[in-house]
């Protein structure tokens, strides 16, 4: 919904200046609520038959008529015994207007014009406090990417607005950069749970660490309090919007590292075995025996055999040992070199529900818990199985291709009674040998002709001898294949234990008093009537612990309460 200023043509019937004054004095300040604003003291045009009306406050020019508030803050909530909402270093920018002038906290905020002020979150100052929170929530130390913006605006006209996160100096949500949205920070769940006395390792085996990587977030709210007090629907004068660029769960699993080490070990083993072929008299002798077993050259008087060269290119296999592989949708990415599995929440949801998550994490209903869905776990398991199975197949293909490309250089010399000596040179890869290529005999015409005429038979025999001299790779490849299902099970258990069993809850588009009528965050139920908040993300950890839990709001904007100066007998909401 979009907030648009409208001139409300309400009029008060005038029975005289004294009567008007009495009405005005009788009215107390009113806060904005979900219901249409009603007050018996205000009488609109036409309510008094035949009497000429006059405006008390015209929303076309209501300067000085209202007290307002706008507050933008990147980080809010509570964590590890710290009430972030009372911590001066993270209270953001709060602008209030008492009807005569705007006041801002902190006083160092930059004047953005029209009673609006901006001041980015200073993470360096926050870290200087040496809070436990800064050890588990890692934020950028500077605002060069613009993800730490904070803005608040409060005008005496009844207009208020606020923005936080990836917003510009006027509180507007920034346009996506050409290189994509920046990252806001990382929440180290394992460390956080340890700080709360909840040992992740005792619950989830096979996991070394779990963290949430949070993309750029932004929350923005604006309210036209004057129009609302003159009868406009709240949906027409209140605008709450958010941006959640991305959320990635990263799981550090030793099992993934073991898979990588297995492939690296296979590369080392094969390289050593191939190098050992050079000068290996036993294998060279087998080559000669194999050749003579195919071609009868007569009575051999003397023979010599030597393998002079053997090379294999296992680069493709080595690359797979440290590669990052993902499914086509980009929902799951496995980094075998680092031993991590990354789950892109937006891509995973889009894979599971393509018709609902076309815009990623944006455009969702207020207070959507995006991770509490068993169907998503099934989709995750399927995606991860695809990635791992494809990787095992790729390793298998790369190993076989490397073996096919193994190049052998050898010299075989055969002397036969009563015939000239024949020299047989072999210079071919194994797949070339199997095709009968790379074998060339010179010397006596008879013997060389026999050999050269039978290369199609000789080559496969020689290639088989070389393959047989190498260590078997089938057992290693089977080991990789057998590791897929257990690893998928570990990841599914991690996801289920964290997000389905209530350890961690991630809510997108957090709002109090949402227009949908759905439940609001429980810890926002105490916000005063007439105040409207929105946060791009709410991350709750162990919510069931009550005061001991963690509730982090990221990209939070708040507007209201708004009240009429003319009718307030006391200071409005403290400002």
Distance between the termini: 28 Å
Work out the strand percent: 25-35%
Rg from alpha-carbon coordinates: 37 Å
Give the biggest beta sheet.
9 strands, antiparallel
Q: Which word captures the global form?
A: rod-shaped
Helix content: 25-40%
Q: Can you describe what's shown?
A:
The chain has 575 residues and is of the alpha+beta class. 31% of the residues lie in helices and 29% in strands. Strands 3, 4, 5, 6, 21, 25, 26, 27 and 28 form a 9-stranded antiparallel beta sheet that branches. A 7-stranded antiparallel beta sheet has the order 9-12-13-16-20-19-18. The longest helix is centred in the C-terminal third of the chain and has 31 residues, at 374-404. Helix 9 (281-294) packs antiparallel against helix 15, helix 10 runs antiparallel to helix 12 and helix 11 crosses helix 12.
List keywords for this structure.
alpha+beta; 9-stranded antiparallel β-sheet; 7-stranded antiparallel β-sheet; 17 helices; 31% helix; 29% strand; disordered N terminus
Break the fold down into its secondary structure elements and pairings.
Blueprint (H helix, E strand, L loop, with lengths): L11 E2 L3 H10 L26 E2 L11 E14 L2 E2 L9 E5 L4 E4 L4 E4 L2 E3 L4 H6 L4 H4 E2 L10 E6 L4 E7 L17 E6 H7 L4 H4 L5 E7 L1 E8 H5 L4 H4 E7 L2 E6 L1 H22 L5 H14 L5 E12 L3 H7 L2 E3 L5 E4 L4 E5 H8 L15 E2 L4 H31 L2 E10 L5 E8 H5 L4 E5 L1 H8 L2 H15 L4 H9 L1 H17 L3 E8 L20 E10 L8 E10 L3 E2 L11
Antiparallel strand pairs: 1-2, 3-4, 3-5, 3-27, 3-28, 5-6, 7-8, 8-10, 9-12, 10-11, 11-14, 12-13, 13-16, 14-15, 16-20, 17-22, 18-19, 19-20, 21-25, 22-23, 23-24, 25-26, 26-27
Helix pairs in contact: 8-10, 9-15, 10-12, 11-12, 12-17
